[in-house]
Amino acid sequence: MKVPGFEVVVLVKATVQSVNISNFYYNVKPLIENLSNVLLFPEDLDNDNQNFARITLNIGGTSKWPKVSLKSRSRADFLNELDALNMPSRDGYATDGGSIAALESAIKTFYDSSETTNRVIVLLTDQVLPSDAVSNIANKLRCICEMIIVVGIPSFQHSSFNDSMKAAGDLVGQNVAATMVYPSIVDAVTSFLPVRALIQVQMNRPEIACQRVVFIYENSNFVNLQVQQKFATAVQIASSYMYTDEVVALVSFDDFLKDGLVFLETYIVKNWTVEPSNSYDPLGDAYKTNIFERLLKIAKTQHYQYLDVVLLTQSDVYSTGLNESAYNLANRENVNVFIFDASQNQTDVAIFDILTRNQRDRIFDVTDANRTAMTDILTDDVLPKILQQSCGAVVTPGPAKSTSTVQTTATMKATTTLIDSTTPNSANAITVSMTLALIFTLFV
C-alpha cells in the first residue's frame, strides 16, 4: 500500500515589502523546485511497499500566514502550486521581527495534517532572533521534527544573514548547527552537504510505524492536578519500553480539542512538555466537538493499523450524550481503550463499560496511585496487551452496547510480560546524527 512516509514543510518569510521580487522568482522558487526533485511522489513508486513524500508551502510575513494543508498530491500538482506562488502584499503582513510566526504556522500545519513522524522543516528567512530559538514553539518543533533546516535570504531590512547565524544554529540544535544552517541560497545549493542531500537521505528513511498510542488526560477540576502530572510522567517513563512500530501522542483534553495532537517517536516522549491544568470544562462547549469523535477521526487514518487510547478521566461528571460517540469509537476493530479512573465521587460509570467493551481488566483505579504505581500499570498491564497486537492482523469488533455497570478497579492482571523491561529500546529511529553519518558515508 502506498502511504505517506515523509513530510516537508517549507516556510518562506517573504512579502513584497521585504524581499526583492526578482530574487524571489529567480532564486527562492527554483530552490524549492530543486528540493522537490529528490522527493518521491505517489506516482513515482514502483511497488506497493514504498512511502511517498508530502510537501507544502507556507509563505508570508511575521504576523499573518495563510493556512496551507499538508496533503498527498502528485508532482505536477505541487509544481503547479509552486508556479502560482506569489508573495503577499496586502495589509497585515509584518516585514520584521524574527521568524516565530513562521514556526507557529509550521506547528499548526503538523497538528492539522501530519500523518507520519518523519518530518522536516525548511525555513527560508531573513532573520532569526535568539528569542525564536528558545521559544516554546521551537522546543516543540525540535521534538516533532527530524530536522529543522534554515536558509538565509536577503531582505530590504536585513541584507545579510550573518547576524542571525548564531540564533539559527540554536534553533536547529547546537550539535548540528554547522550542517543545518545555510547563510544564503547559494550556500544551500553548492556547499559540500547541500540541503538537497539532507532531504534526499531523510526521504529514504523507512517509515515502519503501524500502531498509534494516544495518552490523553482530562485536565478539569474533577481530576487532581497532581494526578495529571503523575500520569504524564508515568507515560514518559513507560514510553522507553515501547517499540519501533509504535508512535505516541501525549495531550490534555483541552489541548486536543483546541489544537489537535501530533504523534512522536517513543524515544522523544520523555522530552515533551506537559502542563497540568483545570482549563477543561466537562460540562461546557467542549462536548460540541467531543473527545471521542475526534479520536474516531484519527482512527480512520488508513495506513496506521491500530489506535490504542489510554484515557485518564473521571465519572463524577459525564454527559450521557457522549455514550453514542464513545461506542462508535470503541467498536472500531482497530481501536482499544484503557481507562485510568481518577473518579472521586462516581455518578455514572456506564461510559467506561462502553469504552472498554466490558473488559474490566482495562480499567484501573488511580485516584490514590503515585507515579510508580501508574508506571507499573502501564508496563505490566497496558503495554503487554498492546504488544499482543500484530501489524499483520486486526482485532475483532467489540460486543453489542452494554448498559451494565462496570467495576472501576481491574479485577484481572495480564499474564503477558514485557520483554526485558529493564533495557529500554531507545533506538527507535534514525536520528539527525545518524542521518549525517550516512550522508558523510555517501559523499566521501
Automatic annotation (TrEMBL):
Highest taxon above the source species: Eukaryota
UniProt cross-references to InterPro entries, sorted A to Z: vWFA_dom_sf
Protein name, per record: VWFA domain-containing protein
